Amino acid sequence: MKASQPPRINPCPFCLSRKVQLQTSGKKLSPAFIQCMDCHARSRLYPDVSEAILAWNRTPGTS
Ligand SMILES: [Zn+2]
Question: How far is the CA of 30 from the centre of ligand 1 (A)?
C-alpha cells in the first residue's frame, strides 16, 4: 500500500521562513502539527496530517 503524498507546506506566514516542519509521531491517524524552526510558531494540533498542512497554508500572516 502506497502512502499518499501530503500536500506541500507553505513557508511560515509569520517570518516567511521555509524551515517549517511537519511534527507527527509517525503513527497512522496520529495528531500532527506544523512548526516553524525559525520563529517557533506552530499550528494547532490536528488529527490528520493533511488537515494540519492545509490549515497551516490557510494561516493568515502578519500584515
Ligand atoms: Zn516563522
Answer: 24
